[in-house]
Amino acid sequence: MTAQNNVDYDEISKFEALASRWWDEHGEFKPLHQINPLRANYIDTHSPVAERKVIDVGCGGGILSESLAFRGGEVTGIDMGEAPLSVAELHKLESGANVTYRRSTAEQAAEEEPEVYDVVCCLEMLEHVPDPASVIAACARLAKPGATLYFSTINRNPKAYAFAIIGAEYVLNLLPKGTHDYQKFIRPAELAQWIRAAGLELDDMIGLTYNPLSKRYRLQSGDVSVNYMVRTRKP
Predict the structure, then answer these.
(1) pLDDT the model gives residue 63
(2) What is the DSSP letter of 128?
(3) Cα torsion 221, 123, 35, 119: sign
(4) Burial 137-163 (b: 16+ CB within 10 A, else e)
(5) 216-221 and 143-154: which strand pairing?
């Protein structure tokens, strides 16, 4: 599969349609705003980003990109959605975040900038592309030897279907209906296999849980039954 083919334009169009509301903390992207501090802290704790070259693959409207830039990272954000990137550029003018945005696939970026980045992030993207393994391999090529890479996605099991689709999209209305396709969810064993195939070492796997009563998210070791995140290293 070529870099240009590893794009699901139906998925892109979902986020294009919502782009103007990307930075509305009470709108459709509220969950992203709520989990962003947890993930940014986790990344910065394990791979301090200050004065490091960071790439955010599938950056969307730039929520994570800006957070890492404000922690001192030299951040590049790439995405294939033109509208989210336009929103990211506009918000950068407002916030003053020092982020470089580009319209690119992970595979294209890897061809142009092999072994350039100290930290590679690819969060909430793998379940939206036809070939996740290709994206992981491209992220590995973007990373310098010794770099840390972060991936997050959603497990594929009945509980994840109940929580991430029925609960989040239909009952609690945390996400727009149709945001996720259950068949594209990724089991931890599958993700681990693709990570190893890309020549990366898996250092940590941590769950992201949501309490509907307190309406709070937290990172939780040992519970990767729904949303989860992995930390990997390029030898």
Answers:
(1) 96
(2) G
(3) positive
(4) bbbbbbbbeebbbbbbbbbbeeebbeb
(5) unpaired
Residue 58 labelled as part of a binding site: yes
Beta strands at 143-154 and 201-211: parallel, antiparallel or unpaired: unpaired
Per the annotation, does 123 bind a ligand?
Answer: yes
The reported pLDDT for the residue numbered 2 is 52
- Compute, in degrees rounded to 10, the torsion defined by CA atoms 36, 39, 41, 44: -120
Q: Is the confidence at residue 217, as pLDDT, over 60? A: yes
176: which residues sit within 8 A by CB, 6+ positions away?
Answer: 14, 18, 28, 169
d(CA 36, CA 134): 25
Domains of the chain: 9-234 (3.40.50.150)
24 marked among binding-site residues = no
β-bridge partners, 152: 123, 229
In single-letter form, the type of residue at position 128 comes to H
Predicted TM-score (pTM) of this structure: 0.91
What pLDDT score does 139 carry?
A: 98
Best CA proximity match to 46, nearest among 140, 148, 146, 118: 148
pLDDT at residue 13, rounded to an integer: 79
Query: What is the pLDDT averaged over residues 18-33?
Result: 83
- Is 231 annotated to bind a ligand? Reply is no
Report the distance separating Cα 111 and Cα 34, nearest Å.
Answer: 34
- Mean predicted confidence (pLDDT) in 84-88: 93
b/e map of 193-214 (b: 16 or more CB within 10 Å)? ebbeebebebeebbbbbbeeee
